[in-house]
Amino acid sequence: MVTIKQVAARAGVSFKTVSRVVNNDPSVKSVNREKVLNAIKELNYRPNRAASLTRRKKTNIYAIIADELLNVPYTFDIIRGAQEVAWKKNKELLILNINETKASIDRAIVSLLENRVEGVIYSAMCHRAVQLPDELKKIPTILANCFPINGDFPCVVPDEVQAGEEITTALINKGYRRIAFLNLNEDIIAAKGRKQGVINAFTRHGLPLSNLLIESVIIKQDDGIERSISRESAAKIIDSFKPDAIICGQDPMAMEIYFVAHEKNMVIGDDIGIASFDNWGSIPELLQPNLTTMALPHLQMGRWAMEYLIDLRVDLVHQHLPFKLIKRDSF
Amino acid sequence: MVTIKQVAARAGVSFKTVSRVVNNDPSVKSVNREKVLNAIKELNYRPNRAASLTRRKKTNIYAIIADELLNVPYTFDIIRGAQEVAWKKNKELLILNINETKASIDRAIVSLLENRVEGVIYSAMCHRAVQLPDELKKIPTILANCFPINGDFPCVVPDEVQAGEEITTALINKGYRRIAFLNLNEDIIAAKGRKQGVINAFTRHGLPLSNLLIESVIIKQDDGIERSISRESAAKIIDSFKPDAIICGQDPMAMEIYFVAHEKNMVIGDDIGIASFDNWGSIPELLQPNLTTMALPHLQMGRWAMEYLIDLRVDLVHQHLPFKLIKRDSF
DNA sequence: CTGTTAGCGCCTTCAC
DNA sequence: GTGAAGGCGCTAACAG
Predict the structure, then answer these.
(1) Closest nucleotide to residue B25 (Cα to C1')?
(2) How far off is chain A from B94, nearest CA to CA, in Å?
(3) Who is most buried in A169, B135, B283, B326, counting CB within 10 A?
(4) What is the pTM of this model?
(5) Could you tell me how many helices (H) and strands (E) chain B has, helices first?
(6) The pLDDT of residue A285
(7) Which CATH superfamily is domain A160-295 in?
(8) What is the distance in angstroms between the Cα of B77 and the nearest Cα belonging to chain A?
């Protein structure tokens, strides 16, 4: 491997000058800069990151821990958002993919510590509470799409309530007045918040709550496994409650509704409106125009979390898609 | 940051002994090892990876470049597979997420070179030909889920032909005898191979090719944008060709078929069999039992590629899901 | 603007 | 088994 000294010899300058050129120090005469640049190209020199890191105090390395527990397509956007900002700010971003096991997260933390990482985003693939090892407190850390069980880390999470309000308002604005909301399991954060949001929208628009039916169609069986009863429920609800629109907890559920509507010879968007949270991209193109979706702001969460770490900015612009930024000065 | 010397002072040994303990050198008296271990714990010492890397010749760092061009759920499995093996072999794995831009890949390569990465997996999100910069030839590289346009890198790709044979054979074994295959755009690798495989299976089972209809239902419009005409095509084909089973190029297509079948009051699995490549997980649970799917071996590709890099093993066991390993001794 | 000197924290070599 | 000396490739501090 060619070193800075070899380049210096070739260019006929001291190795410090080479170092300056490599690090874009403006205080190098352009003649010398040229010479060095040529030598670098001729020798095909590449700075040794490890060596440079030993001497520098700032590593400029950040990391995102991705807890892949649930592994739905769009969640990769958190990483993408973080990466985008890191790139722009010239920071290195380590992606650490873990799973639910303790060994896995422990190993990730070892990596963080040994690499002298300067900031960490801990991101979960579904909005939930997490309990993180205390060791993470040694490094500036922000959670994305999850929040700390003890409130001991700052976090950025989607504002499910606002999402619920927005999707409902969209339907109301389209003229729908009697809405059924097939919610996810109401134990989970997203389901609780959205339910509240849907109710809020009804109240705000002066619609009677008797025109609103909310039912959880993901049920936990005795064996602990979750099962979707969306199809059966939808069929029943359409007959009994007679909604003019249905909100689904997630895309696959919307697919089921399409089926049920078909079976009942209802025309989507005409006889019945359909809206859905969590656009998984699983809805065939053909049906998309008839669907009101609310995608979660994963990209923004990633960006935001990264900007928070790098600049400690907590004054960020509110984006179109709803968010909640819970700030805690833990460092 | 606490250093090896501080640990040594605390433990009452030379810093070299500490180094030995940290690196699991067996030639340390267990009394001393204990002392060192305690000191490490008390001071909460963490080896500095960068510093250790400067002196060591082997970095043990590998990287996977993920070309996220197409961003379908299961492709992350390539990374997961690579990571699994890297973990097992105690290697660090850098995940470099790029997009189609040259700037992006160039930046990734700079990162590879500066980090003195010892091996690279270049993975594409859909099976295709890629042209990689020559600079990658300086590092042992293997492609996963894509192959080099000039044959200048080794690669591991799914065996689409075999996949076609297996899925068709599965249908034939279930008793279906007249099959329509709604293929992806036949310009793409996967579509070509699978078509051949489907034909092979027919031939092998002595079925007349007149009982097989293959049609591409993803068409490229004049404006270059691809459009799926699977639904219309399926409707027509069911009426005219009267297949007893349909093979779909991918899950979303299978969803369309479910619809069409519904509209025609056909019972899935009874009046008509459905099979699909590329299990995206977009098929609602309820319908899964009626679907014969063939998932692509992304996990295995990731594992295999990594093992190839680390051990140069090309003699790996053939797994259930079909593969093709194209080996080229480029390093 | 440039070069010298002195490290960074660790590992290698080799003598004890 | 252990430790001292030396060096990895680079940057900080400072002198010129």
Answers:
(1) D1
(2) 7
(3) B283
(4) 0.89
(5) 11, 13
(6) 67
(7) Response regulator (3.40.50.2300)
(8) 10
